[in-house]
Amino acid sequence: MGFRHKDIIALKDLNKEEIQLLLDTADSLSEINRRDIKKVPTLRGKTVINLFYEASTRTRTSFEIAAKRLSADAVNITASTSSVTKGETLSDTANNLLAMKPDIIVMRHSISGAHEYLAKRVSCSVINAGDGAHEHPSQGLLDMLTMRQKFGKLEGLKVAIVGDITHSRVARSDIYGLTTMGAHVFLAGPPTMMPIGIERLGNVTVCKDMREAVDQADVVMMLRIQLERQGKTLLPSMREYARYFGLNPAVLALAKKDAIVMHPGPINRGVELSSFVADCDQSHILKQVENGVAVRMAMLYHVCGGEPVE
Amino acid sequence: MNLLIKGGRVIDPSQGIDETMDILIADGVILELGKGLGSPEGFQVIDASGLLVTPGLIDMHVHLRDPGLEYKEDIATGSRAAAAGGFTSVACMPNTSPVIDNKAVASYVVNKAMSEALVNVFPVGAITKGSKGESLAEMGDLKEAGCVAVSDDGKPVCSTELMRRALEYAKGVGITVISHSEDLALVGEGVMNEGFVSTELGLKGIPWAAEDIAVAREVYLAEFAGAPVHIAHISTVGSARIIRNAKARGVKVTCETAPHYFTLTDEAVRGYNTNAKMNPPLRSDADVAAMKAGLADGTIDAIATDHAPHHLDEKDVEFNLALNGIVGLETSLPLSLKLVEEGVLDLKGLVSVMSCNPAKILGIDRGTLRAGAVADVTIIDPAKEWDVDAAKLESKSKNSPFIGWKVKGKAVYTVVKGQVVYQA
Predict the structure, then answer these.
(1) What is the pLDDT along chain B (424 residues), one digit of tens a residue?
(2) pLDDT band with cut points at 50, 70 and 90 for residue A310
(3) Where does residue A112 rank: exposed (0-12), middle (13-18), buried (19+ CB within 10 A)?
(4) Dihedral sign from CA coordinates of A150, A153, A154, A158
(5) A47 with A73: CB under 8 angstroms?
(6) For the segment B289-335, what is each residue's pLDDT rounded down to a tens digit?
(7) B317 CA: distance to closest CA in chain A (Å)
(8) C-alpha distances in Å from residue B149, one per residue of A17, A93, B60, B128, B337
(9) Mutation choice for A interface testing from B187, B189, B192, B199 by most A CBs within 10 A
(10) How many CB pairs (< 8 A) connect A and B?
(11) With the C-alpha atoms ordered A231, A236, A237, A242, is the resulting torsion angle positive or negative?
């Protein structure tokens, strides 16, 4: 089957076959990343603009490397150096970029829905590299790829997601992707960070206690706490957060023996994860980063029509 | 112009009338109501058979954006939209630029309306200077200049102490205080109703408690000060319950809701639809039901539109950046008539909340077809079906979630002071 979407805005929009296709493609493309010469001509002549309205190193670099390994020309624009600081609207920025005939705009934006807005107004493909607290589909896909590589399947997996669910676009994409693929998601976090009706997004169980979520889990996904934003009213202190919602060896021991630990990064050592857990054999955090490149190659490839890989 | 409106179904709750009658109008005043009235020479005759004839509709909460923001709307265009919607009177909010917080600005509105408006325009003055919530505006002067109420609409008076003094002072002046009830700390950076849809869209939510808490404060202050208060645009189960209870124990509180709050839920925001972004936000099914129940049992006194025109550029942006508000003058009547179809209100009830009650709350001599009253009359074809088409709206702005809807019911004649100012 082919990929029928012009854009990739949200995993909510993708069905099981489409997610499967993206993961399978990523699996096959990941071999390129291990070659001595890490480049194929698949997207030669295509132009990818990375339009980043929010600071990001890993996602932007990952998309840039992904584009380059497929021989596309990648251009990076960051908001602090763009016309945004001169008051240009997103619509005007998009039109100006469009006049330069890019094939794909990869965008990160702090406002939920900004990609939907953009995609309706431009003829080129739009890939969401994170919008507000809405979705982060490439992260969701790389998380799923990492799990699938470890367990061979996603169906029936028990995945615990712990932390600030309310503000997490990663959590939403993981929930949509995983539940579409037949996994069961267990959420835990302070009640101040658990949004209304989250359990209605799919096969999701909200747990009162982190230990309940981690118990017999195949995957423990710890979310980043934004120290700068959440100190004021959502939490009494980082110390208390680490004590009740941080992953330490004792809590991890509740999970299945071969469970893996994941985190979208960047990690706050000693807050979401103890250093021991972050660096233990079960930690797949760097594997996630590695898979990020392959997944993004697959996304770029499929929105461009999916020509054969050489 | 002298008029004979013949054979319409006259509905006037102020006189307990619901029957087929004629109305004779001369020199801007209603001369006589009766059956089989002859048409004196020189009178224009409107055949109203099959139509409803009501006291002119009154929208007690609109934004005409004049002075200062005329690129969105001005007194002339806003009044044309009002006339096309069947409204003979509107009360316009003071969050203009400059704010209507003194006699000079109020007089500007009154004078401009006199020369340019098709309908009666009653300005609402600010409660506090600049609507900054710091010190009381000159309410005596505002009233003298023609203001019919005071409100810092768009934002609450945050200081409870200042609100107390505003209610006490306004009571002395004899002017209605209209409260925009919202606890801003709870609203935070919220941009839509807090609920399942905000969770799914990843947008920051505004909890219903932000409204309920503020409404409760106004009710207690009004009770304490022994002064009336009118709560603008209520949207929640809790607000309706608090006001219902307060009324039962004799507190002088009145309130309004808007057609969108009994027609739409936060589901309308899906797709990040900025034309569904307003304040208070569109809520849940339970809240919509509560608005209907509140209208049915008289808890909610008035339907007002909160007509809030914004330029396309202010809505055609990312959701968080879009301004709050929708235009409502031209869609209010069909959306409200639907309440009659659904059995929420009878026609008398509808005319009460869209004409008689707003007149009473604002203390204006309108909302009646009594002989001797100013001849403000709306003639409605309740069966007329039409499409809400942006190109045909009289308002300068087109920010409505109802664009493209098929609706039923339309004002076919709007008569202000005996003059036909709009004819469909």
Answers:
(1) 799 999 999 999 999 999 999 999 999 999 999 999 988 898 999 999 999 999 999 999 999 999 999 999 999 999 999 999 999 999 999 999 999 999 999 999 999 999 999 999 999 999 999 999 999 999 999 999 999 999 999 999 999 999 999 999 999 999 999 999 999 999 999 999 999 999 999 999 999 999 999 999 999 999 999 999 999 999 999 999 999 999 999 999 999 999 999 999 999 999 999 999 999 999 999 999 999 999 999 999 999 999 999 999 999 999 999 999 999 999 999 999 999 999 999 999 999 999 999 999 999 999 999 999 999 999 999 999 999 999 999 999 999 999 999 999 999 999 999 999 999 9
(2) very low
(3) buried
(4) negative
(5) yes
(6) 999 999 999 999 999 999 999 999 999 999 999 999 999 999 999 99
(7) 7
(8) 61, 44, 10, 12, 27
(9) B199
(10) 63
(11) negative
| CA–CA distance, B226 with A102 (Å, rounded to integer) | 67
Candidates A111, A135, A197; nearest CB to B321: A111
Q: Supply the pTM of this predicted model.
A: 0.94
Torsion of CA B124, B125, B127, B131, to 10 degrees: 110
Tokens of B76: 């002339």
Q: Is B153 a catalytic residue?
A: no
Taking the C-alpha atoms of residue A268 and residue A241, their distance in angstroms, rounded to an integer, is 12
Contact yes or no for A198 and B202 at CB 8 A: no
- A90, A117, A132: residue with CB nearest B202: A132
Give the 3-state secondary structure of residue B412: strand
Structure tokens at A217: 């889990």
Tokens in use for B136?
A: 């009381």
Please answer yes or no on whether B318 and A201 come within 8 Å at the CB atom: no
Give the pLDDT of residue A84: 64
Furthest C-alpha separation in chain B: 67
Which candidate from A112, A117, A197 shows the least CB-CB separation from B202?
A112
Q: How far apart are CA A306 and CA B234, in angstroms?
A: 52
Beta bridge partners of A260: A219
Exposed / middle / buried, residue A122 (Cβ in 10 Å: 0-12, 13-18, 19+): middle
Instruction: Tell me the sheet residues that pair with A188.
Output: A162
Asked if the model's pLDDT at residue A280 lies above 90, the reply is yes
Is the C-alpha dihedral spanning B394, B399, B401, B405 positive or negative? positive
A-chain CB neighbours of B318 within 8 Å are 90, 109, 111, 113-114, 117
Cβ atoms < 10 Å from Cβ of A196: 16
Tokens of B405: 């809807």
Question: Which amino acid is present at B179?
Answer: S
Q: What are the chain A neighbours of B203 within 8 Å (beta carbons)? A: 112-113, 132-134
Give the integer Cα–Cα distance in Å for B182 and B151: 13
Sheet of strand B57-62: strand arrangement: B57-62, B87-92, B120-125, B149-151, B176-179, B229-231, B253-257, B302-303
Q: How confident is the model over A73-125, as pLDDT tens digits?
A: 999 998 776 666 677 889 998 899 999 999 999 999 999 999 999 999 999 99
